[in-house]
Amino acid sequence: MAWRNRAVVVVALISLVATACGGDDADDGAGGPTTTVAGTSTSGTTGDTGTEPTRLSVVAEDFSFSGAPEQVEAGVFAITFENAGAVEHELAFVEIGDTPLDEVGAAIAPTLEGGPFPDFLENLAIPAVAEPGQTVETTALLGEGNYAVICTLTGAVPEPGATTTTGGGGGPEEGPQGPPHHELGMIQPFTVTTSSNPLTLPANDSAITARDYDFDVRISAGPQTVNFVNEGPDQVHHGVFFAFNEGVDETAAEAALLAFASSEDEAPPPPELDLPTSETLPHTGVFSSGLGATYEMDFQSGRTYAVVCFIQDRSGGPPHLVAHDMKEIFTVQ
Questions:
Q1: Domain 54-193 falls in which CATH fold?
Q2: pTM of this prediction?
Q3: Which of 90, 172, 202, 233 is the most buried (most CB within 10 A)?
Q4: Phi, psi of 106 (to 5 degrees)
Q5: DSSP-derived 3-state class of residue 102
Q6: Would strands 304-308 and 240-243 be described as parallel, antiparallel, or unpaired?
Q7: For 40-97, how does the pLDDT look when each residue is reduced to its tens digit (9 = 90+)?
Q8: DSSP structure class, residue 107
Q9: What is the pLDDT of residue 45?
């Protein structure tokens, strides 16, 4: 959903809420940088399930979905998400309970701006976001519930011959964005029924587990499939990654990250931060407790990275980095 899209640019905008980011007031987070090396044990909803994933192929166009069935059984899904449109789209599964589809957009609008989550939104899974012409493949978990398949991103189809530019520092696109895509038709019902299938991702050597309010990281060097799971137990989380230049240790990396997060929009990034590499690392989707997905990532040996959560609490408020210091600085061994 738009949470993920906003998280990419929030590091350049977070000065708007920096007054809530006093270092002495942060609670529930790790008190300082820590190193997590390959081989460190981590729990999480991952393992050998012995059950073949349910295959789900969804195509996004401007502005509709096709291919998503009306009903599936809960469990593990091998998802192929193709964006056949001219603007970026997301594949989001939002539990809506008995809420009519035409009321969902207005109910979640405050949440997209940092407000509280509506009561009906107990389960949430956003496994994939795709640029125009891109096809994304992932394995994801979906629990029982009445959902909507929805895209809440904005972005108008360019006029013929038009060019688009982006704001500095990874900012949003300039020019008309248009209404949220669900208002243009990208929303439809999706029911996940009860099943004995385990909510467990296939086992992989690398995993990132999000909890209220920290991360367990088990990452090795090189290209790899990474399991991302939110173990909550209460809050919604995701992971946004930052890479640092060679030779930057964890202490310097933490200082640079916090400086960047609290800087003015036009301020240059700290020299320790490797923005080009950061931009090539896929950010995870957004998941409620018990859910997650797999992501293809590439980490370099000896380099220092950070994973950060910019989602707010279910009651609303500042991002978890601000309110709870939810980040993990790690060096790949």
A1: Immunoglobulin-like (2.60.40)
A2: 0.83
A3: 90
A4: -65, -35
A5: helix
A6: antiparallel
A7: 333 345 555 557 899 999 999 999 999 999 999 999 999 999 999 999 999 999 999 9
A8: H
A9: 52
Query: Would the CATH topology of 17-46+199-331 be identical to that of 54-193?
Result: yes
Share of the chain above pLDDT 90, in %: 71
How far, in Å, CA of 201 to CA of 179, rounded?
Answer: 35
Are the C-beta atoms of residues 155 and 178 closer than 8 Å to each other?
Answer: yes
Token pair, residue 234, equals: 């209460």
Q: By three-state DSSP, how is residue 206 classified?
A: strand
Which residue blocks in the chain are alpha helix, DSSP H? 2-13, 101-112, 250-261, 275-280, 320-324
Confidence band for 264, pLDDT divided at 50, 70 and 90: confident
> Does residue 184 contact residue 61 with C-beta atoms inside 8 Å?
no
Asked if 53 and 293 touch (Cβ cutoff 8 Å), the reply is no
Average pLDDT of span 301-305: 96
Q: Calculate the dihedral angle through the C-alpha atoms of 151, 152, 154, 157, rounding to the nearest 10 degrees.
A: 20
107-144 burial: b if 16+ Cβ within 10 Å, else e? bbeebbebeebbebbbbbbbbbbbebeeebebbbbbbb
Chosen CATH of 17-46+199-331 out of 3.40.50, 2.60.120, 2.20.70, 2.60.40 = 2.60.40
For residue 250, count other CB atoms closer than 10 A to its CB: 19
Q: What is the DSSP letter of 269?
A: P
The answer to whether the beta carbons of residues 230 and 143 sit under 8 Å apart is no
What residue type is 146 in one-letter code? N
* 3-class state of residue 65 by DSSP: strand
pLDDT in tens, 208-243: 999 999 999 999 999 999 999 999 999 999 999 999
pLDDT of residue 231: 97
